[in-house]
Amino acid sequence: MKIKLFILFILLTICSKAVSSQVTIRELVKKNDTVSAKPPTYDSLKDWHGQYYEKNRDYKQYIGLEIYIPPMSKAEESKDWGQITLFSNKPETIGGVLTSIYKPYIVDKLPDVKEFCSNPEEIRNKYYTILNVIDNSKDFWKSGVITNEIKGKFDNVNDPFLYGLMLRDNDTKDTLYYFFSGDGNFQTLGVLVPFFAKQKELYDGKRLVFTYSSYVDYTDVLTGKRVMVQPDSKWTCEVSLLKDYDYKLCYVLRNQLNETIVIRLDGNETLKKKEFILEEIYKKEQKESAANDKKYEKERIDKDRKITADHRIECIQRYGQYNGVLIAQGKVRIGMSSEMCKTAWGNPFDSHKTIVENAIFEDWHYGWGKSLHFENGILNMIEE
Q: Mean pLDDT score of the chain, rounded to an integer?
């Protein structure tokens, strides 16, 4: 028995050495680092109108924000344009057609054509929350959530600038989709609530001052009369959406004469660019401007005093105490040299020189009706 155990031990030892002595070869595959830039943080001082982005992550700053889709404006009602189309992953049937358009509504009345959009009475005058921003990734199109009907709305679904907003209806809690090309079309969807709220906070009920240096013509929106907006005039502001202005954010301004004008900003414009600023800021800027003017005037006076003092010292050093003080004060006296007079009064606008035997006569004429006359470089007459 002991012999069998000994033989078994020897065999196990040999096998283990054989295994451990084998050379193993494998390839080290380096993992590629995935680097993703942080999306920009939304700034409530900026509207999304006039913003254009080239990268999907730039649109992600709007995730979690609320938007408001206003009712149809007068222009949209009269021209039958401006319809908004939202999509859902729960198809509905209308006119015998199965469509993924949310709350479908027949737009085109032609008998052979059935063009749909979302019913404005169902989707407008409501609030939505942006849940996500979707690009044209193949995974999304293959997910089955979006049908070929939606693809047909765009010329090229492979366009790298084709995006979608995943929305939640704040009332019904339905998940919806809105698609746009990356050229700013998403901005027609509605009003960005945080921006509107920030403008209300900053300007609603506040007084604005018109800071332009000259008059500007406006039209009174209530009377249709001409309004000459004067520099430094004051206006009380109301921030609102106006139907007559396509429900865009407007600043309704009224002055003490009850004249009413409307300011509507385009793209990245600001009220300051329109030369209207808050009265409190205007007063602060005026105060700072007055303080700066006072500061600059003091600096100018101090500089002039230093120049005068330095000039006085230089004149005394060159011409002595008595003459130096007179010259520094711009005064001349009989017996001064032509150099002293030029230092005191500057160069004449006209001069004449007469050379005779043993003498040189000079006449210097100045613009204020005075003349200096020299003989051999010494002042001998002052003519006034």
A: 83
Distance CA 233, CA 225 (A): 18
Residue 104 in any domain: the answer is yes
Whether residue 123 lies inside any domain: the answer is: yes
Q: Rounded to the nearest 5 degrees, what angle is found at the Cα of 256, between the Cα atoms of 250 and 261?
A: 25
Strand partners, 116: 106
Distance of CA 15 to the CA centre of its chain: 77
The model's confidence at residue 301, banded by pLDDT at 50, 70 and 90, is very high
What distance in Å separates the CA atoms of residue 109 and residue 194, rounded to the nearest whole number?
Answer: 38
244-253, 307-316, 345-354 — which is least confidently predicted? 244-253
In the numeric block, which tokens belong to residue 114? Answer: 């059935």
**Confidence at 190, pLDDT banded by 50, 70, 90:** confident
Please, which residues have CB within 8 angstroms of residue 223's CB and are 6 or more apart in sequence?
none
If one compares 217 and 163, the residue with the highest pLDDT of the two is: 217
Sign of CA dihedral 69, 71, 73, 76: positive
C-alpha 319: how far from chain center: 62
- Looking at 192, 220, 245, the residue that finishes a domain is 192
Q: Looking at residues 21-44, what average pLDDT do you find?
A: 64
What is the span of the domain harbouring residue 82? 56-192
Per-residue pLDDT tens over the stretch 304-322: 999 999 999 999 999 999 9
Kindly list the strands in the beta sheet with 248-254, ordered across the sheet, starting from the edge strand earlier in the chain.
260-264, 248-254, 234-242, 207-210, 276-278
C-alpha 26/C-alpha 31 separation (Å) is 15
Q: What percent of the chain has pLDDT over 70?
A: 75
Q: How many domains does the chain have?
A: 3
> How many other CB atoms are there within 10 angstroms of residue 138's CB atom?
9
> pTM for this structure?
0.69
Q: Are residues 80 and 152 in the same domain?
A: yes
Q: DSSP H helical segments within the chain, as ranges?
A: 2-20, 56-59, 74-79, 120-123, 138-142, 148-151, 193-203, 279-319, 321-328, 338-345
